[in-house]
Hints:
By secondary structure, the protein is α/β, with parallel strands linked by helices. The protein has a single domain, classed as Rossmann fold (3-Layer(aba) Sandwich). It is built from five helices and seven strands, in the order ββαββαβαβαβα. A seven-stranded mixed beta sheet has the order 1-3-4-2-5-6-7, sandwiched between helices. Helix 3 links the parallel strand 5 (105-113) and strand 6. The protein is globular and about 45 Å long.
Amino acid sequence: MNFNLASFEASYGLFSQIPPCNCIEIAFAGRSNVGKSTLINKIMNRKSLARVSAVPGKTSTINFYNVDPIKIVDLPGYGYAKVAKTEKHRWADLIEGYLNSNRNIKLIFLLIDMRHAPSKDDLHMINYLIEREMPFVIILTKADKLKPTERKRRLSAFEEEIPYFDDIHSVQFSSITREGIEEIRSIIEDIAESSD
Length: 196
């Protein structure tokens, strides 16, 4: 599987626009500005395959990327307060429409900022994935911003804050040091190989 050959396929603003699923899909979810586009770029070894913005709430569409033999799906960020209610509803419909569909979603990478307790929206998403029995991995982003003792403290706190945290596979990720990239790639490769 060659991550360097990843290509952007299409963006969709409404779930009804998305064509039928024809291969395995791995989705990236998380609140606005948690670093989904940055992580996708790092995995694919590209600077701007996924558009990165300093402004939260920029990814307002579902974006599909081809990485033969699978598709990577970048979901809109949730929980950004400064967006019109109608826009929030459209995002929610997009995310829920996608997750509730019968598409071949093999895994969801759920990104959470390691520096902070999970938001209400994060917990809502975790509970939703657990209830739906959808396989997911938590990616703890911005890991480089914490000193080793602070990291330990946050990991202990997550055990209290996130239901079943000990039973959930989590990966610490830094876009600066590239920590976690190889582990995330190998998870994707394992899923791609199982599709052969």
